Amino acid sequence: MIELRRDWSEAAFDMQREMERLMNEVVNRKPPAVRFSPKTWQPVVDVYETDSEVVVLVELAGVRDDEIEVTMQNRRLVIRGERRDVRQGIKRTYSRMEISWGTFERSVTIPADVDEERVKASYQAGILEVILPKLGEGRSHRVSIRRG
């Protein structure tokens, strides 16, 4: 029969609790790449298609509309801009830092041929919506068969 000394098992439990505390601290801390990189973040996007268009939604909370640049070339949509820290110059000590600030760039490949001349964009409540009309040739249509 094996006997374990009580002080050894208590030390093991203490070590386990300390490791859990350390892991929780690491998981809840912002990664250094996000904290110190000049290009700190990429906005999230949704891309979907309807019969007549491709729609791209970009989440840009806290970004002013005059800080957003949208370009389109060769089936690639590029969104660039900057989210500025609204409280710049104020001395502060963070207990949690999850909002990313700074410049961003997000590139999205468009899944269909679109009319780049008719692309429209609107921005409301932190969501950029880019509507890309599909080219007529890409649409399906019914072909009638002549009976002879």
Characteristic key phrases:
single chain; Immunoglobulin-like; 4-stranded antiparallel beta sheet; elongated
Report the CATH architecture of the domain at 38-88 and 99-138. Answer: Sandwich
- Tertiary shape: elongated
Element order: H for helix, E for strand: HHEEEEEEEE
What is the count of helical runs? 2
Q: Approximately what portion of the residues adopt beta-strand conformation?
A: 25-35%
- Main beta sheet: strand number and arrangement? 4 strands, mixed
Instruction: Using the CA coordinates, give the radius of gyration.
Output: 26 Å
Q: Please report the distance between the alpha carbons of the first and last residues.
A: 97 Å
Describe this entry's structure for a reader.
With 148 residues, the protein is α+β, with helices and mostly antiparallel strands. It has a domain at 38-88 and 99-138: Sandwich (Immunoglobulin-like). The chain has two helices and eight strands; from the N terminus they run ααββββββββ. It has helices at residues 6-28, 32-36, and strands at 39-41, 45-49, 53-59, 68-73, 76-83, 102-109, 120-124, 127-133. It has a four-stranded mixed β-sheet with strand order 1-6-5-4. A four-stranded antiparallel β-sheet has the order 2-3-8-7, with no helix packed on it. A hairpin with a 2-residue loop joins strand 7 and strand 8. It is elongated and about 90 Å long. 11% of the residues are buried. Mean pLDDT is 81; it is low at 33-38.
